[in-house]
Amino acid sequence: MAAILKLQMGEGYREVPPRVCGQRLAWEDNGRLQMAETDFIAPQTLGEIGGVDCPLAVDAQRGRAWAYCCQFRLGVRDFSEIREFDLAKGTSRRLVRLGLHQWALWLLAHWGATDQLLVLVATDSREGAVHIRHHLALIELRTGNLRLIALPRDAFVPLTWCPQRRWLIFHGAEGTHLVTVAGQRLLTLLPKQSETPGGRGASIHPHQPLALLGGDGVWLWNLETGALRRLRDRGQFPVWTPDGQGCWFSESSSDLWHLNIDTGAELRLLRVAGNVHTEINYARPLVVSSDGRRLALPLTRMLKLDPDVAAKIPAMPRLHRLCVVDLAAREAWMTLGYARNLAWV
Fold first, then answer.
1. Which of 12-26, 46-60, 191-205 has the lowest mean pLDDT?
2. How many angstroms separate the most distant Cα atoms in the chain?
3. 3-class DSSP assignment, residue 307
């Protein structure tokens, strides 16, 4: 069965063939770290990094990237480590070896002001039973030294990191938490049945003590007063625009929107055409280029099959694409593949 993934563009936007724009992308694809120009011709494989869901950290000025690497194939010697990749040479080295009872999860970021990596480290701390503890780890890039910082109870799913204010936002079973890089809880947003965000992404304002929260809508959280306001009924993974006047977000794994915070004006930049079976499980946060001109995100289309064919297939098949949006040129293009973790390099 031949199937395609085609975009339906918003007003003023058009779909174009892939092109070089002077910036490269790195992404994780099926346990491998890939890198390519934005025309995606001859992508370079930098190495295997494993199947654990952990973002990529990048220092674009020095041409370095860091990834959590672990083994995920049976019968092969196990390992758990943070590796540093030289993007110009295509080489890598082990920066830090973690214990085999430790994993890096959901947070890996380069803190440029201190030349450190921030990592969420999960540790199975009890023999004979599963007892997972989470710590924030600071890794000195010059020495490789690692320091573990205790986190408040329930702060175990990181949503965003703001290096300017040294704040992190975590989601947990007991609410959403604003935490300093030293592990101090500053604010907690308690769950109130369906009246609070669902923990699908967050973004801290570039200039003001405000945060956007995603899940069950797009929400505005005042980080001084604790006030919460719902901006939209549907939405996830919001990201502030560089000027702090609006945000980008998605409703599912197959669309991209822009919202003006002050006026409430909305624009759907794109969506996958003919995708009647939308879902959120494959949606991921978009990444913004350093100049704020381009966005990159994965898109997914769920395929509807003939009933006779569907009965023989255990799961509904999906088409995955990596999409780049040029906001200045109002153009978008795609390539094959699912990029679970993305970074501009």
1. 191-205
2. 60
3. helix
Query: DSSP 3-state assignment of 225?
Result: coil
CA angle 292, 288, 233 (to 5 degrees): 110
Burial environment of residue 62 by CB neighbours within 10 A (0 to 12, 13 to 18, 19 or more): middle
CA distance 275 to 6: 10
The answer on pLDDT for 96 being more than 80 is yes
pLDDT in tens, 235-263: 999 999 999 999 999 999 999 999 999 99
For the question of whether the overall pTM of this predicted structure is more than 0.90, the answer is yes
**CA-based torsion, 105, 106, 110, 115: positive or negative:** negative
Candidates 236, 304, 334; CA nearest to 8 is: 334
- 300: CB partners within 8 A, 6+ apart: 253, 254, 272, 279, 282, 283, 318, 319, 320, 321, 338
Q: What is the pLDDT of residue 1?
A: 39
